[in-house]
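Notebook, p. 212. Picked up where the previous page left off. The plan for this session was modest: take the two constructs that came back from the sequencing core last week, fold each one, and keep the raw output in the notebook itself so nobody has to go hunting through shared drives later. Recording the first one now, exactly as returned: residue sequence, then the C-alpha coordinate string.
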Amino acid sequence: MRNQDQPTSTSTNEKHALAIFAGVLSFILPGAGQLILGKLQRALLLLASYATIIGLLVWRFIEAAPRDTGFWPIFLKAIRLEPMVAFIGLLVIAFLVLAALDAYWVARGAERRAAGLFAIIAVLFFFLGWQISDISPVRLIAGLDEGSDKLGRIMWPWERAITRPEELVRGEALIEIPCSDSPPAMSDVLTGEAYLISDPTCGVLSVQQGAQGTPLSLTGGNFIPNSDVEIRWEDPIGSEFRQRQGGEYVVVMSDDQGGFEVDIIMPYRLLPVDLAEHMIWRVYGQQVASLGDPVPSIELKLAISHMIETIFLGMMATCFGIVFALPISFLAARNLMSSSPVTLAIYYITRLILNIVRSIEPLIWAVIAVVVVGLGPFAGILALTVHSIAALGKLYSEAIESIDPGPIEAIQATGANWIQTVVFGVIPQIIPPFVSFTIYRWDINVRMSTIIGLVGGGGIGFLLIQWIKLLDYRAAGIAVWFIAITVAILDFVSAEIRKRYV
Protein backbone atom coordinates (compact mmCIF):
# COMPACT_ATOMS: atom_id res chain seq x y z
CA MET A 1 0.00 0.00 0.00
CA ARG A 2 2.87 2.41 0.78
CA ASN A 3 4.45 1.94 -2.68
CA GLN A 4 1.10 2.58 -4.43
CA ASP A 5 0.47 5.82 -2.46
CA GLN A 6 3.96 7.24 -3.01
CA PRO A 7 3.38 8.54 -6.63
CA THR A 8 0.17 10.24 -5.58
CA SER A 9 1.88 11.96 -2.65
CA THR A 10 4.78 13.04 -4.85
CA SER A 11 2.38 14.41 -7.48
CA THR A 12 0.47 16.35 -4.83
CA ASN A 13 3.67 17.85 -3.43
CA GLU A 14 4.84 18.88 -6.90
CA LYS A 15 1.48 20.46 -7.63
CA HIS A 16 1.59 22.32 -4.33
CA ALA A 17 5.14 23.54 -5.02
CA LEU A 18 4.14 24.68 -8.51
CA ALA A 19 1.16 26.57 -7.04
CA ILE A 20 3.41 28.32 -4.51
CA PHE A 21 5.98 29.16 -7.20
CA ALA A 22 3.26 30.53 -9.51
CA GLY A 23 1.82 32.58 -6.65
CA VAL A 24 5.18 34.11 -5.71
CA LEU A 25 5.91 34.84 -9.37
CA SER A 26 2.56 36.59 -9.79
CA PHE A 27 3.13 38.61 -6.64
CA ILE A 28 6.39 39.90 -8.16
CA LEU A 29 4.89 40.41 -11.62
CA PRO A 30 1.11 39.92 -11.93
CA GLY A 31 0.30 37.51 -14.76
CA ALA A 32 3.69 35.77 -14.77
CA GLY A 33 2.43 32.85 -12.70
CA GLN A 34 -0.65 32.47 -14.85
CA LEU A 35 1.58 32.54 -17.95
CA ILE A 36 3.67 29.54 -16.87
CA LEU A 37 0.42 27.72 -16.10
CA GLY A 38 -0.71 28.20 -19.70
CA LYS A 39 -3.44 30.77 -18.98
CA LEU A 40 -2.30 33.20 -21.68
CA GLN A 41 -5.43 35.38 -21.87
CA ARG A 42 -5.63 35.84 -18.10
CA ALA A 43 -1.90 36.49 -17.87
CA LEU A 44 -1.98 39.18 -20.56
CA LEU A 45 -4.99 40.85 -18.91
CA LEU A 46 -3.29 40.97 -15.51
CA LEU A 47 0.03 42.12 -16.93
CA ALA A 48 -1.59 44.87 -19.04
CA SER A 49 -3.69 46.04 -16.08
CA TYR A 50 -0.68 46.13 -13.76
CA ALA A 51 1.49 47.98 -16.28
CA THR A 52 -1.25 50.55 -16.88
CA ILE A 53 -1.86 51.09 -13.17
CA ILE A 54 1.85 51.48 -12.37
CA GLY A 55 2.32 53.82 -15.35
CA LEU A 56 -0.56 56.02 -14.20
CA LEU A 57 0.73 56.06 -10.63
CA VAL A 58 4.24 57.07 -11.72
CA TRP A 59 2.73 59.82 -13.85
CA ARG A 60 0.68 61.11 -10.90
CA PHE A 61 3.78 61.03 -8.65
CA ILE A 62 5.76 63.11 -11.15
CA GLU A 63 2.84 65.51 -11.65
CA ALA A 64 2.57 66.03 -7.88
CA ALA A 65 6.30 66.77 -7.47
CA PRO A 66 7.57 68.08 -10.83
CA ARG A 67 10.64 69.87 -9.37
CA ASP A 68 11.82 67.07 -7.09
CA THR A 69 14.31 64.36 -7.99
CA GLY A 70 14.84 60.92 -6.53
CA PHE A 71 12.26 58.26 -5.75
CA TRP A 72 11.70 58.95 -2.04
CA PRO A 73 11.41 62.77 -2.24
CA ILE A 74 8.89 62.45 -5.08
CA PHE A 75 7.03 59.63 -3.32
CA LEU A 76 6.76 61.44 0.03
CA LYS A 77 5.72 64.75 -1.52
CA ALA A 78 3.10 63.04 -3.69
CA ILE A 79 1.66 61.27 -0.65
CA ARG A 80 1.55 64.58 1.25
CA LEU A 81 -0.11 66.52 -1.56
CA GLU A 82 -2.35 63.74 -2.87
CA PRO A 83 -3.47 61.50 0.05
CA MET A 84 -5.61 59.37 -2.27
CA VAL A 85 -2.40 58.16 -3.98
CA ALA A 86 -1.51 56.39 -0.69
CA PHE A 87 -4.89 54.64 -0.70
CA ILE A 88 -4.36 53.62 -4.33
CA GLY A 89 -0.96 52.23 -3.29
CA LEU A 90 -2.69 50.03 -0.72
CA LEU A 91 -5.06 48.82 -3.41
CA VAL A 92 -2.07 47.95 -5.60
CA ILE A 93 -0.68 45.80 -2.77
CA ALA A 94 -4.07 44.10 -2.47
CA PHE A 95 -3.99 43.56 -6.24
CA LEU A 96 -0.56 41.87 -5.99
CA VAL A 97 -1.79 39.61 -3.19
CA LEU A 98 -4.92 38.64 -5.12
CA ALA A 99 -2.88 38.06 -8.29
CA ALA A 100 -0.63 35.71 -6.31
CA LEU A 101 -3.62 33.89 -4.82
CA ASP A 102 -5.21 33.66 -8.25
CA ALA A 103 -2.10 31.99 -9.69
CA TYR A 104 -2.00 29.67 -6.68
CA TRP A 105 -5.63 28.62 -7.09
CA VAL A 106 -5.32 28.31 -10.86
CA ALA A 107 -2.50 25.85 -10.27
CA ARG A 108 -4.78 24.03 -7.84
CA GLY A 109 -7.63 24.01 -10.39
CA ALA A 110 -9.93 26.56 -8.65
CA GLU A 111 -10.24 29.35 -11.24
CA ARG A 112 -13.59 30.53 -9.92
CA ARG A 113 -11.75 32.56 -7.25
CA ALA A 114 -10.67 35.16 -9.89
CA ALA A 115 -13.78 37.29 -9.35
CA GLY A 116 -12.17 39.16 -6.44
CA LEU A 117 -9.06 39.88 -8.50
CA PHE A 118 -10.97 41.46 -11.36
CA ALA A 119 -13.09 43.38 -8.87
CA ILE A 120 -9.95 44.94 -7.33
CA ILE A 121 -8.74 45.88 -10.82
CA ALA A 122 -12.03 47.67 -11.46
CA VAL A 123 -11.81 49.44 -8.08
CA LEU A 124 -8.22 50.48 -8.80
CA PHE A 125 -9.13 52.04 -12.13
CA PHE A 126 -12.11 53.76 -10.52
CA PHE A 127 -9.99 55.45 -7.84
CA LEU A 128 -7.27 56.27 -10.37
CA GLY A 129 -9.91 57.93 -12.50
CA TRP A 130 -11.21 59.75 -9.41
CA GLN A 131 -7.74 61.11 -8.64
CA ILE A 132 -6.78 61.94 -12.23
CA SER A 133 -10.11 63.67 -12.88
CA ASP A 134 -9.67 65.76 -9.70
CA ILE A 135 -13.14 64.89 -8.42
CA SER A 136 -13.97 66.84 -5.26
CA PRO A 137 -17.41 66.49 -3.66
CA VAL A 138 -16.43 69.17 -1.12
CA ARG A 139 -15.71 71.62 -3.91
CA LEU A 140 -18.98 70.65 -5.58
CA ILE A 141 -21.00 71.35 -2.43
CA ALA A 142 -19.14 74.62 -1.81
CA GLY A 143 -19.62 75.61 -5.44
CA LEU A 144 -23.34 74.89 -5.30
CA ASP A 145 -23.63 77.01 -2.19
CA GLU A 146 -21.67 79.90 -3.72
CA GLY A 147 -23.31 79.59 -7.13
CA SER A 148 -26.90 79.12 -5.95
CA ASP A 149 -27.76 82.66 -6.99
CA LYS A 150 -26.36 82.13 -10.49
CA LEU A 151 -28.09 78.77 -10.81
CA GLY A 152 -31.33 80.34 -9.66
CA ARG A 153 -31.07 82.99 -12.37
CA ILE A 154 -30.45 80.29 -14.99
CA MET A 155 -33.30 78.08 -13.75
CA TRP A 156 -35.82 80.94 -13.57
CA PRO A 157 -34.77 83.68 -16.02
CA TRP A 158 -38.19 84.98 -17.01
CA GLU A 159 -37.81 88.34 -15.30
CA ARG A 160 -35.37 89.07 -18.11
CA ALA A 161 -37.77 87.87 -20.80
CA ILE A 162 -40.21 90.76 -20.30
CA THR A 163 -39.27 94.41 -20.15
CA ARG A 164 -40.98 97.79 -20.01
CA PRO A 165 -40.03 101.00 -21.83
CA GLU A 166 -37.62 102.97 -19.66
CA GLU A 167 -37.69 106.70 -18.98
CA LEU A 168 -34.87 108.74 -17.48
CA VAL A 169 -35.98 110.99 -14.61
CA ARG A 170 -33.28 113.54 -13.73
CA GLY A 171 -32.92 116.74 -11.72
CA GLU A 172 -29.70 118.75 -11.74
CA ALA A 173 -27.91 121.52 -9.86
CA LEU A 174 -24.92 123.65 -10.91
CA ILE A 175 -21.84 123.68 -8.69
CA GLU A 176 -18.92 126.10 -9.11
CA ILE A 177 -15.41 124.85 -8.24
CA PRO A 178 -13.75 126.72 -6.59
CA CYS A 179 -16.06 129.44 -5.30
CA SER A 180 -15.95 132.82 -6.98
CA ASP A 181 -17.53 136.12 -6.01
CA SER A 182 -20.76 135.18 -7.84
CA PRO A 183 -21.52 131.44 -7.46
CA PRO A 184 -24.52 129.89 -9.31
CA ALA A 185 -27.97 130.51 -7.88
CA MET A 186 -29.85 127.65 -6.26
CA SER A 187 -32.14 125.68 -8.55
CA ASP A 188 -35.82 126.55 -8.57
CA VAL A 189 -38.52 124.33 -7.13
CA LEU A 190 -40.33 123.07 -10.22
CA THR A 191 -43.89 121.89 -10.66
CA GLY A 192 -44.44 118.56 -12.39
CA GLU A 193 -40.74 118.12 -13.19
CA ALA A 194 -37.90 116.60 -11.18
CA TYR A 195 -35.58 119.14 -9.56
CA LEU A 196 -32.45 119.12 -7.38
CA ILE A 197 -31.32 121.91 -5.04
CA SER A 198 -27.77 122.09 -3.67
CA ASP A 199 -26.72 124.06 -0.62
CA PRO A 200 -24.15 125.55 -1.08
CA THR A 201 -23.67 125.89 -4.85
CA CYS A 202 -19.87 126.10 -4.81
CA GLY A 203 -16.94 124.50 -3.05
CA VAL A 204 -13.71 122.54 -3.48
CA LEU A 205 -13.08 118.96 -4.55
CA SER A 206 -11.75 116.26 -2.27
CA VAL A 207 -8.01 115.59 -2.39
CA GLN A 208 -6.75 112.07 -2.87
CA GLN A 209 -5.43 110.82 0.48
CA GLY A 210 -5.94 114.37 1.79
CA ALA A 211 -8.60 116.85 2.83
CA GLN A 212 -12.25 116.13 2.12
CA GLY A 213 -14.18 118.34 -0.24
CA THR A 214 -16.96 120.74 0.61
CA PRO A 215 -20.06 119.14 2.20
CA LEU A 216 -23.21 119.60 0.11
CA SER A 217 -26.83 119.17 1.16
CA LEU A 218 -28.97 117.97 -1.75
CA THR A 219 -32.76 118.26 -1.78
CA GLY A 220 -34.76 116.64 -4.56
CA GLY A 221 -38.43 116.67 -5.51
CA ASN A 222 -40.94 115.36 -8.06
CA PHE A 223 -39.04 112.06 -8.48
CA ILE A 224 -40.81 108.69 -8.69
CA PRO A 225 -42.02 107.87 -5.15
CA ASN A 226 -40.38 105.10 -3.13
CA SER A 227 -37.66 104.43 -5.70
CA ASP A 228 -33.85 104.61 -5.68
CA VAL A 229 -32.23 107.85 -6.82
CA GLU A 230 -28.59 107.74 -7.95
CA ILE A 231 -26.33 110.72 -7.30
CA ARG A 232 -24.13 111.42 -10.34
CA TRP A 233 -21.70 114.12 -11.44
CA GLU A 234 -20.62 115.65 -14.74
CA ASP A 235 -17.21 117.36 -14.84
CA PRO A 236 -16.36 120.40 -17.03
CA ILE A 237 -15.06 118.20 -19.88
CA GLY A 238 -18.40 116.34 -20.11
CA SER A 239 -17.49 113.05 -18.39
CA GLU A 240 -20.17 111.54 -16.15
CA PHE A 241 -19.45 109.45 -13.08
CA ARG A 242 -21.36 108.15 -10.08
CA GLN A 243 -20.86 109.67 -6.64
CA ARG A 244 -18.99 107.40 -4.23
CA GLN A 245 -18.89 107.93 -0.49
CA GLY A 246 -17.29 105.54 1.99
CA GLY A 247 -16.43 103.19 -0.87
CA GLU A 248 -20.11 102.81 -1.87
CA TYR A 249 -22.17 104.47 -4.57
CA VAL A 250 -24.51 107.11 -3.17
CA VAL A 251 -28.12 105.98 -3.62
CA VAL A 252 -31.05 107.49 -1.74
CA MET A 253 -34.67 106.35 -1.55
CA SER A 254 -37.36 108.88 -2.43
CA ASP A 255 -40.32 109.31 -0.08
CA ASP A 256 -44.05 108.92 -0.77
CA GLN A 257 -44.13 112.33 -2.48
CA GLY A 258 -41.00 111.69 -4.58
CA GLY A 259 -38.74 113.90 -2.46
CA PHE A 260 -35.45 113.20 -0.68
CA GLU A 261 -32.59 114.83 1.18
CA VAL A 262 -29.00 113.62 1.31
CA ASP A 263 -25.66 115.00 2.48
CA ILE A 264 -22.61 114.31 0.34
CA ILE A 265 -18.97 115.35 0.15
CA MET A 266 -17.68 116.80 -3.12
CA PRO A 267 -15.79 114.00 -4.88
CA TYR A 268 -12.17 113.61 -5.96
CA ARG A 269 -11.50 114.08 -9.67
CA LEU A 270 -8.27 114.44 -11.66
CA LEU A 271 -8.64 116.93 -14.53
CA PRO A 272 -6.32 118.51 -17.14
CA VAL A 273 -4.30 121.45 -15.80
CA ASP A 274 -5.14 123.84 -18.65
CA LEU A 275 -8.79 124.34 -17.64
CA ALA A 276 -10.20 127.64 -16.43
CA GLU A 277 -9.72 128.65 -12.80
CA HIS A 278 -13.44 128.59 -11.96
CA MET A 279 -15.35 125.68 -13.48
CA ILE A 280 -19.03 124.72 -13.51
CA TRP A 281 -19.84 121.13 -12.51
CA ARG A 282 -23.25 119.47 -12.56
CA VAL A 283 -24.64 117.17 -9.91
CA TYR A 284 -27.63 114.99 -10.78
CA GLY A 285 -30.30 113.04 -9.01
CA GLN A 286 -31.22 110.29 -11.48
CA GLN A 287 -33.79 107.52 -11.74
CA VAL A 288 -34.48 105.02 -14.51
CA ALA A 289 -38.19 104.33 -14.50
CA SER A 290 -39.91 101.41 -16.22
CA LEU A 291 -43.16 102.69 -17.65
CA GLY A 292 -45.74 101.50 -20.15
CA ASP A 293 -46.98 98.04 -21.11
CA PRO A 294 -44.66 95.02 -20.84
CA VAL A 295 -42.99 93.97 -24.10
CA PRO A 296 -40.70 91.04 -25.02
CA SER A 297 -37.10 91.79 -24.16
CA ILE A 298 -34.29 91.89 -26.70
CA GLU A 299 -32.86 88.71 -25.14
CA LEU A 300 -36.17 86.87 -25.60
CA LYS A 301 -36.42 87.96 -29.24
CA LEU A 302 -32.81 86.92 -29.90
CA ALA A 303 -33.37 83.54 -28.24
CA ILE A 304 -36.47 82.86 -30.34
CA SER A 305 -34.85 83.89 -33.63
CA HIS A 306 -31.67 81.91 -32.96
CA MET A 307 -33.67 78.88 -31.80
CA ILE A 308 -35.56 78.92 -35.11
CA GLU A 309 -32.19 79.22 -36.84
CA THR A 310 -30.96 76.23 -34.81
CA ILE A 311 -33.93 74.06 -35.82
CA PHE A 312 -33.48 74.84 -39.51
CA LEU A 313 -29.73 74.40 -39.19
CA GLY A 314 -30.31 70.82 -38.01
CA MET A 315 -32.99 70.24 -40.64
CA MET A 316 -30.87 71.48 -43.55
CA ALA A 317 -27.88 69.45 -42.39
CA THR A 318 -30.08 66.34 -42.21
CA CYS A 319 -31.51 66.94 -45.70
CA PHE A 320 -28.08 67.38 -47.25
CA GLY A 321 -26.81 64.38 -45.30
CA ILE A 322 -29.61 62.18 -46.67
CA VAL A 323 -28.96 63.27 -50.27
CA PHE A 324 -25.28 62.28 -50.11
CA ALA A 325 -25.57 59.33 -47.72
CA LEU A 326 -28.14 57.40 -49.76
CA PRO A 327 -25.92 56.62 -52.78
CA ILE A 328 -22.86 56.18 -50.59
CA SER A 329 -24.65 53.63 -48.39
CA PHE A 330 -25.15 51.25 -51.33
CA LEU A 331 -21.41 51.43 -52.08
CA ALA A 332 -20.70 50.66 -48.40
CA ALA A 333 -22.95 47.56 -48.25
CA ARG A 334 -20.86 44.38 -48.50
CA ASN A 335 -23.69 42.18 -49.74
CA LEU A 336 -24.12 44.44 -52.77
CA MET A 337 -20.44 45.10 -53.47
CA SER A 338 -18.85 41.65 -53.11
CA SER A 339 -19.61 40.34 -56.59
CA SER A 340 -16.21 41.32 -58.04
CA PRO A 341 -12.76 42.44 -56.81
CA VAL A 342 -13.36 45.94 -58.18
CA THR A 343 -16.64 46.49 -56.32
CA LEU A 344 -15.16 44.92 -53.18
CA ALA A 345 -12.26 47.40 -53.32
CA ILE A 346 -14.79 50.24 -53.66
CA TYR A 347 -16.59 48.86 -50.61
CA TYR A 348 -13.43 48.88 -48.46
CA ILE A 349 -12.42 52.38 -49.59
CA THR A 350 -15.92 53.75 -48.93
CA ARG A 351 -16.05 52.14 -45.49
CA LEU A 352 -12.62 53.51 -44.61
CA ILE A 353 -13.59 57.07 -45.59
CA LEU A 354 -16.87 56.86 -43.66
CA ASN A 355 -15.07 55.63 -40.54
CA ILE A 356 -12.48 58.41 -40.72
CA VAL A 357 -15.06 61.17 -41.24
CA ARG A 358 -17.36 59.78 -38.54
CA SER A 359 -14.53 59.57 -36.01
CA ILE A 360 -14.07 63.37 -36.13
CA GLU A 361 -16.65 65.09 -33.92
CA PRO A 362 -19.01 67.75 -35.38
CA LEU A 363 -17.36 70.36 -33.14
CA ILE A 364 -14.04 69.78 -34.93
CA TRP A 365 -15.75 69.93 -38.33
CA ALA A 366 -17.39 73.19 -37.20
CA VAL A 367 -14.00 74.71 -36.37
CA ILE A 368 -12.72 73.70 -39.83
CA ALA A 369 -15.87 75.05 -41.51
CA VAL A 370 -15.57 78.37 -39.66
CA VAL A 371 -12.03 78.73 -41.02
CA VAL A 372 -13.32 78.10 -44.56
CA VAL A 373 -16.61 80.06 -44.69
CA GLY A 374 -16.45 82.22 -41.56
CA LEU A 375 -18.74 82.49 -38.55
CA GLY A 376 -22.44 81.78 -38.92
CA PRO A 377 -25.02 79.05 -39.46
CA PHE A 378 -23.59 78.03 -42.84
CA ALA A 379 -20.46 76.77 -41.07
CA GLY A 380 -22.67 74.78 -38.71
CA ILE A 381 -24.64 73.28 -41.60
CA LEU A 382 -21.42 72.20 -43.34
CA ALA A 383 -20.07 70.61 -40.15
CA LEU A 384 -23.25 68.68 -39.38
CA THR A 385 -23.72 67.68 -43.02
CA VAL A 386 -20.25 66.13 -43.25
CA HIS A 387 -20.76 64.17 -40.04
CA SER A 388 -24.34 63.20 -41.03
CA ILE A 389 -23.15 61.77 -44.36
CA ALA A 390 -20.69 59.50 -42.58
CA ALA A 391 -23.09 58.50 -39.79
CA LEU A 392 -26.12 57.92 -42.02
CA GLY A 393 -23.97 56.18 -44.63
CA LYS A 394 -22.87 53.67 -42.00
CA LEU A 395 -26.37 53.15 -40.59
CA TYR A 396 -27.96 52.86 -44.03
CA SER A 397 -25.31 50.40 -45.24
CA GLU A 398 -25.76 48.21 -42.16
CA ALA A 399 -29.51 48.21 -42.78
CA ILE A 400 -28.86 47.10 -46.36
CA GLU A 401 -26.51 44.34 -45.17
CA SER A 402 -29.17 42.97 -42.80
CA ILE A 403 -31.95 42.60 -45.39
CA ASP A 404 -33.36 39.26 -46.46
CA PRO A 405 -31.17 37.90 -49.32
CA GLY A 406 -34.01 35.81 -50.78
CA PRO A 407 -35.64 38.55 -52.90
CA ILE A 408 -32.21 39.67 -54.13
CA GLU A 409 -31.27 36.16 -55.24
CA ALA A 410 -34.65 35.73 -56.96
CA ILE A 411 -34.26 39.00 -58.88
CA GLN A 412 -30.65 38.22 -59.82
CA ALA A 413 -31.78 34.81 -61.09
CA THR A 414 -33.94 36.59 -63.65
CA GLY A 415 -30.84 38.26 -65.12
CA ALA A 416 -31.43 41.69 -63.54
CA ASN A 417 -28.48 44.07 -63.41
CA TRP A 418 -27.12 45.77 -60.27
CA ILE A 419 -29.40 48.81 -60.46
CA GLN A 420 -32.52 46.68 -61.01
CA THR A 421 -31.53 44.48 -58.07
CA VAL A 422 -31.22 47.54 -55.82
CA VAL A 423 -34.50 49.11 -56.99
CA PHE A 424 -36.69 46.00 -56.75
CA GLY A 425 -34.91 43.83 -54.18
CA VAL A 426 -33.27 46.22 -51.72
CA ILE A 427 -35.20 49.49 -51.53
CA PRO A 428 -38.58 47.97 -50.51
CA GLN A 429 -36.88 46.28 -47.53
CA ILE A 430 -34.86 49.26 -46.31
CA ILE A 431 -37.48 52.02 -46.27
CA PRO A 432 -38.62 51.45 -42.62
CA PRO A 433 -35.09 51.40 -41.10
CA PHE A 434 -34.05 54.31 -43.32
CA VAL A 435 -36.93 56.42 -42.03
CA SER A 436 -36.09 55.50 -38.45
CA PHE A 437 -32.38 56.31 -38.86
CA THR A 438 -33.19 59.59 -40.63
CA ILE A 439 -35.48 60.77 -37.83
CA TYR A 440 -32.89 59.76 -35.27
CA ARG A 441 -30.21 61.71 -37.11
CA TRP A 442 -32.43 64.78 -37.37
CA ASP A 443 -32.89 64.66 -33.62
CA ILE A 444 -29.11 64.39 -33.13
CA ASN A 445 -28.44 67.26 -35.52
CA VAL A 446 -30.82 69.59 -33.71
CA ARG A 447 -29.18 68.74 -30.40
CA MET A 448 -25.70 69.17 -31.86
CA SER A 449 -26.64 72.45 -33.56
CA THR A 450 -27.12 73.93 -30.08
CA ILE A 451 -23.50 73.02 -29.30
CA ILE A 452 -21.55 73.86 -32.45
CA GLY A 453 -22.57 77.48 -31.97
CA LEU A 454 -20.03 77.52 -29.15
CA VAL A 455 -17.26 77.54 -31.77
CA GLY A 456 -18.99 79.98 -34.11
CA GLY A 457 -21.27 77.59 -35.99
CA GLY A 458 -24.39 79.75 -35.56
CA GLY A 459 -27.61 78.91 -33.81
CA ILE A 460 -28.56 79.54 -30.22
CA GLY A 461 -25.31 78.05 -28.95
CA PHE A 462 -23.48 81.12 -30.24
CA LEU A 463 -25.74 83.36 -28.14
CA LEU A 464 -25.47 81.07 -25.13
CA ILE A 465 -21.68 81.16 -24.97
CA GLN A 466 -21.64 84.95 -25.41
CA TRP A 467 -24.09 85.47 -22.54
CA ILE A 468 -22.14 83.11 -20.29
CA LYS A 469 -18.90 84.96 -21.03
CA LEU A 470 -20.66 88.23 -20.15
CA LEU A 471 -21.91 86.63 -16.88
CA ASP A 472 -25.47 87.40 -18.01
CA TYR A 473 -26.98 84.31 -16.38
CA ARG A 474 -30.63 85.27 -16.80
CA ALA A 475 -30.17 85.70 -20.56
CA ALA A 476 -28.24 82.39 -20.64
CA GLY A 477 -31.12 80.79 -18.71
CA ILE A 478 -33.57 81.89 -21.43
CA ALA A 479 -31.39 80.17 -24.04
CA VAL A 480 -31.12 77.00 -21.91
CA TRP A 481 -34.90 76.87 -21.46
CA PHE A 482 -35.51 77.25 -25.19
CA ILE A 483 -33.01 74.49 -25.94
CA ALA A 484 -34.68 72.13 -23.44
CA ILE A 485 -38.21 72.91 -24.66
CA THR A 486 -37.27 72.56 -28.32
CA VAL A 487 -35.46 69.25 -27.82
CA ALA A 488 -38.42 67.88 -25.84
CA ILE A 489 -40.88 68.90 -28.57
CA LEU A 490 -38.69 67.43 -31.32
CA ASP A 491 -38.34 64.21 -29.36
CA PHE A 492 -42.13 63.94 -29.14
CA VAL A 493 -42.56 64.75 -32.85
CA SER A 494 -39.90 62.24 -33.92
CA ALA A 495 -41.50 59.56 -31.73
CA GLU A 496 -44.89 60.18 -33.37
CA ILE A 497 -43.39 60.04 -36.87
CA ARG A 498 -41.56 56.83 -36.03
CA LYS A 499 -44.77 55.34 -34.63
CA ARG A 500 -46.71 56.14 -37.82
CA TYR A 501 -44.19 55.28 -40.51
CA VAL A 502 -41.75 52.76 -39.06
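Okay, moving on. Second construct, recorded in the same format:
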Amino acid sequence: MSKRPVPRYDFKEFGAAIKAARTGRRESRKKVCDEMFISPHYLANIENKGQHPSLQIFFELMLRYNILSGVR
Protein backbone atom coordinates (compact mmCIF):
# COMPACT_ATOMS: atom_id res chain seq x y z
CA MET A 1 0.00 0.00 0.00
CA SER A 2 1.36 3.44 -0.87
CA LYS A 3 1.35 6.46 1.41
CA ARG A 4 -1.53 8.89 1.30
CA PRO A 5 -0.37 11.99 -0.60
CA VAL A 6 -0.42 14.88 1.85
CA PRO A 7 1.20 18.23 1.15
CA ARG A 8 3.83 19.22 3.69
CA TYR A 9 2.61 22.08 5.90
CA ASP A 10 4.62 25.30 5.70
CA PHE A 11 5.72 26.23 9.25
CA LYS A 12 7.30 29.57 8.30
CA GLU A 13 4.35 31.55 9.70
CA PHE A 14 4.57 29.71 13.02
CA GLY A 15 8.33 30.23 13.12
CA ALA A 16 7.93 33.95 12.52
CA ALA A 17 5.27 34.15 15.25
CA ILE A 18 7.53 32.31 17.71
CA LYS A 19 10.44 34.63 16.96
CA ALA A 20 8.27 37.75 17.27
CA ALA A 21 6.86 36.58 20.61
CA ARG A 22 10.28 35.62 21.93
CA THR A 23 11.90 38.91 20.95
CA GLY A 24 8.84 40.81 22.19
CA ARG A 25 9.46 39.31 25.61
CA ARG A 26 13.16 40.13 25.25
CA GLU A 27 14.11 36.49 25.75
CA SER A 28 17.36 35.39 24.20
CA ARG A 29 17.42 32.28 22.08
CA LYS A 30 19.95 30.81 24.52
CA LYS A 31 17.65 31.37 27.52
CA VAL A 32 14.73 29.66 25.80
CA CYS A 33 16.87 26.77 24.61
CA ASP A 34 18.42 26.25 28.04
CA GLU A 35 14.97 26.13 29.64
CA MET A 36 13.53 23.82 26.97
CA PHE A 37 16.63 21.61 26.61
CA ILE A 38 16.93 22.16 22.86
CA SER A 39 19.81 23.52 20.79
CA PRO A 40 19.91 27.17 19.66
CA HIS A 41 20.50 25.94 16.10
CA TYR A 42 17.25 23.93 16.23
CA LEU A 43 15.24 26.94 17.46
CA ALA A 44 16.89 29.22 14.88
CA ASN A 45 15.87 26.82 12.10
CA ILE A 46 12.29 26.71 13.40
CA GLU A 47 12.11 30.51 13.61
CA ASN A 48 13.94 31.42 10.41
CA LYS A 49 13.53 28.51 8.00
CA GLY A 50 10.20 27.04 9.05
CA GLN A 51 11.75 23.73 10.11
CA HIS A 52 9.13 21.30 11.36
CA PRO A 53 9.64 20.91 15.12
CA SER A 54 8.79 17.76 17.02
CA LEU A 55 5.21 17.72 18.23
CA GLN A 56 6.34 18.13 21.85
CA ILE A 57 8.50 21.20 21.09
CA PHE A 58 5.77 22.67 18.89
CA PHE A 59 3.20 22.50 21.71
CA GLU A 60 5.65 23.81 24.29
CA LEU A 61 6.46 26.84 22.12
CA MET A 62 2.80 27.49 21.32
CA LEU A 63 1.88 27.35 25.00
CA ARG A 64 4.91 29.35 26.13
CA TYR A 65 4.03 32.21 23.80
CA ASN A 66 0.24 31.71 23.56
CA ILE A 67 0.42 31.65 19.78
CA LEU A 68 -2.17 29.17 18.53
CA SER A 69 -5.04 31.62 18.52
CA GLY A 70 -3.20 34.15 16.35
CA VAL A 71 -1.91 32.00 13.46
CA ARG A 72 -4.06 30.82 10.58
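Notes on construct two before I forget. The domain at 12-70 is CATH 1.10.260.40 (434 Repressor (Amino-terminal Domain)).
Flagging for discussion at group meeting.
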